[in-house]
Amino acid sequence: MRAVCKDASCGWLVYASNNTENNCWQIKTFMDDHTCARETKNRLANRKWLACKLVKKLRKYLNLRHSEAAQYFKTKCDLELNKSSLTRALGDARSVVYGDAAAQYGMVRDYGLTLLKSNPGSTVTVGVIPQPNPDGAFLKTRHGGQILSAIGQDANNHIYVIAYAIVPVENTENWRWFLELLHQDLGDYKKNKLCFISDMQKVCNIYRLSLKMMFTHWAADYIC
Predict the structure, then answer these.
(1) For residues 204 and 217, is the Cβ–Cβ distance under 8 A?
(2) Which of 56, 66, 61, 65 is nearest to 93 (CA)?
(3) How far apart are CA 1 and CA 201, in angstroms?
(4) How far apart are CA 86 and CA 94, in angstroms?
(5) Spatial separation of the C-alpha atoms in residues 80 and 84, rounded to whole Å
(6) Of residues 124, 69, 111, 117, the one with CA closest to residue 93
(7) Which PANTHER family match (predicted)?
(8) Cα distances (Å, whole numbers) of residue 166 to 35, 160, 172, 195
(9) Are 195 and 215 in contact (CB under 8 A)?
(10) What is the pLDDT along the chain (224 residues), one digit of tens a residue?
């Protein structure tokens, strides 16, 4: 088997033959010296191949721009791409990534039913918008939103999720809705000997005013 550079004047060459004794291919000749100019066009880098590469990038960088995609292929693959080809490939990749996210949101109710089946006694609420370590975090997706969560720590110092909710925005109304559901599920904090901790003054005030629950402010180390 012999491979050469497509530039006839270039001396790059690799030759391999079948080694029957070891049942493998063995390189016999290798001239690793390109004398031709570097080619930045590649017909194998078609729309499908580009889109496949871009899907991985878009999942990490949702707002990836055309210029950034072009620079990525230039730096990573040493490719100079046609602008229209890259535009079409980027569009295909966005359809895959954003379409996947939309499809997953469409399965929320199925997910809720599965959760109730596998974890009897759980509470699942879908479509209502009005911890013990409550906290909030932004969701870095095309649809945005924030996730509110309450986590606990057992006697072995293991962390586990007690409750979580995905809401459009973190505000007093959504925190109140989340904490009231949490309170309903956990029951009386005195009877169950629960201590709620948070580093957020907003959450602390909601507990104090609406749920009448004793609450330790983690950051300032005092009782609300």
Answers:
(1) yes
(2) 56
(3) 72
(4) 12
(5) 12
(6) 69
(7) MUTATOR TRANSPOSASE MUDRA PROTEIN (PTHR31973:SF187), POLYPROTEIN, PUTATIVE-RELATED (PTHR31973)
(8) 59, 18, 14, 24
(9) no
(10) 888 887 788 888 899 998 888 888 899 899 888 777 666 677 777 888 899 989 988 888 878 898 999 898 888 887 888 888 889 999 889 888 877 666 777 777 887 888 888 888 888 877 644 334 444 444 555 556 788 888 887 778 888 888 888 887 778 888 888 888 888 887 776 777 777 777 666 655 655 554 444 343 333 333 33
Other beta carbons within 10 angstroms of residue 176's beta carbon come to 17
Question: Token pair of 165, please?
Answer: 């909710």
The pLDDT score that the predictor gives to residue 141 is 56
Q: How far apart are the first and last CA of the chain?
A: 78
**Residue position matching structure tokens 């939103």:** 145
**CA distance linking residue 146 with residue 178, whole number of Å:** 12
Tokens 């194998």 appear where? 44
Distance from C-alpha of 135 to C-alpha of 27, rounded to nearest angstrom? 60
